[in-house]
Amino acid sequence: MSDKITKKDAFLTxxxxxxxxxxxxxxxxxxxxxxxxxxxxxKYVKDALIKTIRQYNSxxxxxxxxxxxxxxxxxxAWFGYFLALEFPYYQxxxxxxxxxxxxxxxELEEKKGIVFTDVTKIEIIKFLQYELEGKGELGVGxxxxxxxxxxxxxxx
Length: 156
What we know:
By secondary structure, this protein is mostly helical. Helix content is 72%, strand content 0%.
């Protein structure tokens, strides 16, 4: 039997899972507060959480490095995207997508001092909306949203 730790095992520690769960709870609370609603709960959240963790695992399998900790931008982009897809109504999907975008932008503005214009924010929302509507040729999905946050976060 091998004692070799896999990328998946190195990532799926109790601390990392707890951090993902914390971030998802924050996402749900933020959405509830922003839209005065309580439909984000139960099975929807659980299914989106499972898909988010699976996405982390797929990411680790595909790329040749070990991810030791949770990436804020991945969690918010992927969870927001998967949660939006849990709902059949476009308005609900768009509100969830906006929550993900809002939180990623807020993080960038607070941590990096980067200011996004309203036009840029609307454009990001539109790209994600196109993706959620099945217009991938015009849209940016879960990985595009993640890359937006990740790349901008590396700027000085």
